[in-house]
Structure formats: structure tokens, C-alpha cells
Amino acid sequence: MASAPLARHALAYVLAGGRGSRLMELTDRRAKPAVYFGGKARIIDFALSNALNSGIRRIAVATQYKAHSLIRHVQRAWTFLRPERNESFDLLPASQRISENMWYVGTADAVYQNADIILDYDPRFIVVLAGDHIYKMDYERMLQQHVDAGADVTVGCLEVTPEEATAFGVMGVDVNNRIISFLEKPKNPPTIPGAPDRCLASMGIYVFETKFLFELLREDAANPRSSHDFGKDLIPYIVKHGKAVAHHFSSSCVRSTQEVAPYWRDVGTVDAYWAANIDLTHIEPELDLFDTNWPIWTYAELTAPAKFVHDVDGRRGQAVSSLVSGGSIVSGGAVRNSLLFNRVRVNSFAHVEGAVILPDVDVGRSARLNKVVVDRGVRIPEGLVIGEDPELDAARFRRTAEGVCLVTQPMIDRIST
């Protein structure tokens, strides 16, 4: 008789308090994990969906920075987990549970401050996850490696080039994937044994036995020299004094028949965010959101079907090589290589190309948008042109080094005045 999956004895703890300042105005009103992605979802839905699809039925989300949008989303999307089925979903805002003058001061502290809530569920394992990356991964395989290796901590790792590794925390490992060093953003990163052109970068995913983790957290909390962070403090300590093991993402990434390579993205800059969304409009995108075997769960808004109207030369409602979400109306405008979220309206004679347009945007008549990210609720004035004059765009909008324009309503308002 096969043993029960280890995931049934695990709690997924999602760290979702990130500021995401490199996304500029997109995170003025929301935390990075709450930023929209892929036409329907939010970034955090990927980590949460991975946990659910892996068989984990106890989930906790720690929030901090500008959390209202995130809290509202997960309350709407993730409250189907039921205590009577031995399932749980806890939202854990920074609430000064340990000290009256201390919010979460590090990723490890964000777990320790909620010790009583976590331990009340008595999980055997804790899977610590970052809530701000796009990927599909089966955590059950990582849990199994953790047990088989007898590890104190198992760290999820990406294979990257030495040039890319300088932006990550990098694992030095032996031939058995035991971590022998952990370096933050090294200039000369250690490579994988037998693969001198590859390095192992931390994904910010950790598996612990719960008892071991909280013994370590109590010691860390009492150390005034600690920054109370997994990457800076706890993982290096275990590497030196215990057994830390690297788990290769390639061994647990989930791929459909349409996906060629393991897919993981940090969409933490406007350029990366635009590129990852636009990639979804390609004939064979690198990320398959149509894979029903590993669905990305999210809040299913009640919307009418997308609508395309008018059919005369120069005023034809159409979308080519694009994703158009529910409630959107393309009314005599043209949309190409673009991703439209819910309830976007593109009016007559407007032309939209290479655009990521968040919900509730209205694109005015005869407007032209090229290579843009448009924030939620923006009203694009009639005839406005964005993406054709770099100097004018830079004076009016947030224009990136790659030529992507981020457009918000305050920016539009300044033009009008």
C-alpha cells in the first residue's frame, strides 16, 4: 500500500509582503504579489496554485506592504479551503504579535511572529514560498527529496549562467547536491560540479521540518546581530552547522506538452513584466496557461464574453495574436500582439499593439498605443499617441530603458492640465 503524499502533512507559508519598488507606479497602490498577470490572475496565484496542485491543503499568506488589494483578492479567490476537510487558509498581516513596536523585520521573522497559529495546525513540514514569481512547480517532489536526503533544509534552486548568478543568492554544492556555501550576489559565483557554465541560484523556496525550523527561529529571534532573514541568516547558519541540500527546479517544474524548457520568471521590473505578459500572446508561448492538468487558480469574475463590433474598412473591431479577457469590448479598434484584462474598451479607430492593459481601461477614439503597460482604470484620451516619440513619452510617462511606457491615470491627468 502506497504511503500518503508528504504534501498532506505540509503547510505552505507564502511570504507576500514585498514592496516591489522596481515595478514603479504599478506598486504605488498594491504589493508586488497583488500585481495583475496573464489576463486574469495575480502574481501570487502561481505560488498558491502550485501549493494546491501539489496536494498541500494548509496555506498561510503573510502580508505587509500596501496589502489591501492583495487581501481582497485572496479573500475572494482562496476561501474555498474548508476546515472540516482538514484544510485551512490564513491571512497573516503584520500585527505586532510579538512586540507592540515591531512589524515583520525579515522573512524569518515573518514566520516566527505567527508561531502559535502555525503550530496549532501541527504540520510536519513547512514549505516557505516567495509570493512574487511566475512558475509551475510540484512541491511534493521537493518534499520527497528533503525526506530522502535527511536534510535540515532543502533549498529550491534555478540553474543560471555565471553572469546571471551575480544577481542572486548562489549555492555552492558538492556532487551530492549538499550545499557547502551560500553567497549573496557574488562577483565570482561557484559553478555546479561537472557544469562549469552553470550556477545554482536560490528561488526563495525552502522546506523544513516544523520542529527543527521553530527551534532555529527561537534562537535567531534572540540574536540581536541577526537580520532575521532566511537568505542572510538562517540558510548560511544551516550550511555551516547542519545539512542543507539543493533541489533543482528542473526536477520538479511542471510542463505541458507545449512547454519546451523549465519556466521561471521574476517579473520585478516593468520591462520583465511587459515581456512575460506579451510572450503569452505568441503562438507557442514559453508558459502554457491553457494546461488544464495544472490550473492557475484565481478569482473568477462574473463578466460578459469579450465583444468585437463594427466591420467596415478603417473601423473594424478585431484582435490578432492577442489575449482578450471577459467583459472587454473592441469597438471598431484594432488590437495586435496585446494582452487585455477584464473590462477593457478599445474605441473606434484606435490602434493598440504590444500592449499590456490592466482592467477597466478605456482607450479613446483614434488613440495609438505601442509597447505600453497601462495601469488599471486609466482613461486614454481621444487621439493620444504613446510609443512613437521617445522624448515626448519620457517627458509624460515612465519610459524604461527597453522603451516600454508605463501609463497611469495621474500621468494622463498631468497631460490634460
From TrEMBL:
What GO annotations for molecular function exist for this entry? glucose-1-phosphate adenylyltransferase activity
State the UniProt keywords alphabetically. Answer: ATP-binding, Carbohydrate metabolism, Glycogen biosynthesis, Glycogen metabolism, Nucleotide-binding, Nucleotidyltransferase, Transferase
Q: Does the keyword Cytoplasm belong to this entry?
A: no
Residues binding alpha-D-glucose 1-phosphate: Y104, G169, E184, K185, S202
E.C. numbers: 2.7.7.27
Pathway(s): Glycan biosynthesis; glycogen biosynthesis
The record's annotation in InterPro entries points to: ADP-Glc_PPase, ADP_Glu_pyroP_CS, GlgC_bac, GlmU/GlgC-like_hexapep, NTP_transferase_dom, Nucleotide-diphossugar_trans, Trimer_LpxA-like_sf
Q: Where is the Nucleotidyl transferase domain?
A: 13-281
Q: Which reaction does it catalyse?
A: alpha-D-glucose 1-phosphate + ATP + H(+) = ADP-alpha-D-glucose + diphosphate
Domain spans labelled Glucose-1-phosphate adenylyltransferase/Bifunctional protein GlmU-like C-terminal hexapeptide: 304-407
Site described as Could play a key role in the communication between the regulatory and the substrate sites, located at Q64, W103
Entry annotated with the keyword Electron transport: no
Q: Which NCBIfam families match?
A: glgC (TIGR02091), PRK00725.1 (NF001947), PRK00844.1 (NF002023)
- Which family, according to UniProt? Belongs to the bacterial/plant glucose-1-phosphate adenylyltransferase family.
**What binding partners and quaternary form does the record give?**
Homotetramer.
Q: What does this protein do?
A: Involved in the biosynthesis of ADP-glucose, a building block required for the elongation reactions to produce glycogen. Catalyzes the reaction between ATP and alpha-D-glucose 1-phosphate (G1P) to produce pyrophosphate and ADP-Glc.
Q: What is this protein called?
A: Glucose-1-phosphate adenylyltransferase
Name the species this protein comes from: Candidatus Rhodoblastus alkanivorans
The gene behind this protein is glgC
